Amino acid sequence: MFVAVYWWRVHPGKEEQFIRAWTRGTELIREIYGSYGSRLHRDADGRFVGYAEWPDEATWRYAFDRKMTYEDPETRAAFVDAVCEVPPDADPIFTMTVVSDRLTTRIEPATD
């Protein structure tokens, strides 16, 4: 398994818009590119951090090289409108290969 970690700063007041767009974008990326999905976190500084899991680096690289585009202009526009800062070139802050996986899946439904 392969992991990519990203971050975004969001315009004040657009946090819920960002979360909705990120959620829908993640669903589309999973369907189109074969990711395992991702988790969205918020750090103490208010920055959103996404942790995305992929079957392998080649699958992630294919999607990344295509900028993970998808045909949903409304979702893309909402995402772009909410974001005010990303790392240079929107590169992930980490890419890693999983060497030991001790994470368990929750039984209760995920929250959005």
From TrEMBL:
Pfam families recorded: ABM
GO MF terms, alphabetically ordered: monooxygenase activity
Keyword Oxidoreductase: yes
Swiss-Prot/TrEMBL keywords: Monooxygenase, Oxidoreductase
Domain ABM: 1-61
Keyword Oxidoreductase: yes
Gene3D superfamilies assigned: 3.30.70.100
Name by which UniProt lists this protein: Antibiotic biosynthesis monooxygenase
Annotated organism of origin: Rhizorhabdus histidinilytica
